[in-house]
Amino acid sequence: MDRAAILELSDTALIAHAWRALFPDSLPPEGEYIALIPAGEGAGEGTSPASEVFLLRNGTEVGRFDRAEWDQLVASMPTKRHRWAAALEGPEKQEVPLLWEAGKWDLPAIVDRAEWPAGFTFGVGSGVGMARSSKPQYQRNIDFGWDQKVFGHFLLGASLHRSQYGGGLTRVGEEAADTAGGRLAPLFSPPFWGDGYWGWAFSAGVPGLRYTLSLADQPLPKYFWLETRASHAIRTHSQGRLISQWTGDKMELSGNLSQSLDARFGVMRYGILFDFDAYRVPVQTVGVDDLPAIFGSWGAGLVIASDLLATRAWVDIPDAALTLDAPRNWPTRFRFAFLRLEFDYRNQKSFSLGLSVRLNIQNPIMALPITRS
Asked: What is the pLDDT of residue 205?
């Protein structure tokens, strides 16, 4: 076999049999199940990619079987054995379909493509940003998040994060504050890393749309690197072309609340950020996310703020997943990004680069109501 093959599994007995082989003593949750054999020569030779069969639910891998193990499992379902063999070896072999042929377009399928994922997330990372006329700005972050589905599709979320800044514009801000009013510069230099800033966010969403309210009283707004006159605005306490929060005697704006609205459908994403205490205009993002790759998953898009435009891309290397049958009746899925690389770029003097490690934990308990076996 030299082409990928997929089979949509419609037989509930076969689905249940395959699910119990992966997660004993539990019932398969509702969804669309597909058996996928990747393209490759020499199927069944152990080291070939085609020697594995992947079980997908709603487009997400839930487990995999050795090819021989899968053939044995299907053989135990005599009514389906012939149809399985014909799909792989006969003249009606199924190839991976085109986008407009791949999915159903009824209401449940559309809702499923617009669903926000529920689960617990944790991330820790560092980054560097460059703005015109300033030295590199360093940052390190810790993030915790919890998203819970209630009433089937309604999503409630909460997150807590800590950011710390070093060098760059924050150093310029400290120097400007120390010498304000004609004071002499201090004899000692401030530490490279400043104080840590804690923030929180609460969100509510329905399929396709999510609203988020965040505490954003930190020295540098998220898109500070887009500012074309950052160093001058900080020193003179004036508005920049994009950033407006540096007009006071401090870089941070205490009690600043930002609001954002995000949309999703399949891999497509759109977001708009309203924070007129920090920015002079709304900041929009548009792009695609969670695209598969050999090494993990990736996404790309644009950042738009008035007439300022930047490109962005991110990749998870590798995007690994495993499932544990715990609790007994509600298997838990872990998804790791041992290296998440994020790169936003406007020009050689205006960009942001971030590296982080991320963990996502998903369990049916995080989607209420749940069904016990």
From this structure: 96
Note whether 199 and 159 are within 8 A (CB): no
Count of domains in the chain?
A: 2
Which residues is 214 bridged to in the sheet? 201, 258
Question: Which pair of tokens denotes residue 129?
Answer: 């940003």
From the list 105, 53, 190, 115, the residue with the least C-alpha distance to 367 is 115
pLDDT beyond 60 at 45: no
Cα torsion 60, 63, 68, 71: sign: negative
Please tell me whether residues 242 and 263 are part of one structural domain: yes
Residues in the chain, total: 373
**Which structural domain, as residue segments, surrounds residue 148?**
113-366
Whether the pLDDT of residue 121 is over 60: the answer is yes
Q: Identify residue 70 by its one-letter amino acid code.
A: W
pTM (predicted TM-score) = 0.72
Listed residues 71, 103, 135: the one ending a domain: 103
Contacts of 272 (CB under 8 A, 6+ apart): 260, 261, 282, 283, 284, 285
What does the pLDDT average to over 339-349?
A: 95
Strand order in the sheet with 60-66: 5-9, 33-37, 52-57, 60-66
